[in-house]
Amino acid sequence: MNKPKPGSYIDTQGMGAPLSSEEAAALPKQEYVPAVKKPRRLFTPQYAKEMKILIHEVLDEREGNFHYTSYFDTEQYKYPVTGEEPEYTPHYTPAYYQ
Q: Is 54 in contact with 61 (CB distance < 8 Å)?
């Protein structure tokens, strides 16, 4: 079996072509910057927001403070296809709406 000639292929271990020590010394040093990862969540932000609304409504109903239109009462939030969905305004100001 014939071995490939050095320089005729890319060295995948070093991820670059073979260099002499003089050529390697002439290259600028690169600073290592670690990657920034965004945590993955099971639920989308919209789903989490709706779950918080639901939990607040359940707690209000249990405590007898449920004297407002529910976010999940879709009959109250009907709108024509040509229009925009009506904005939900909660009866309190939770931090997650900021």
A: no
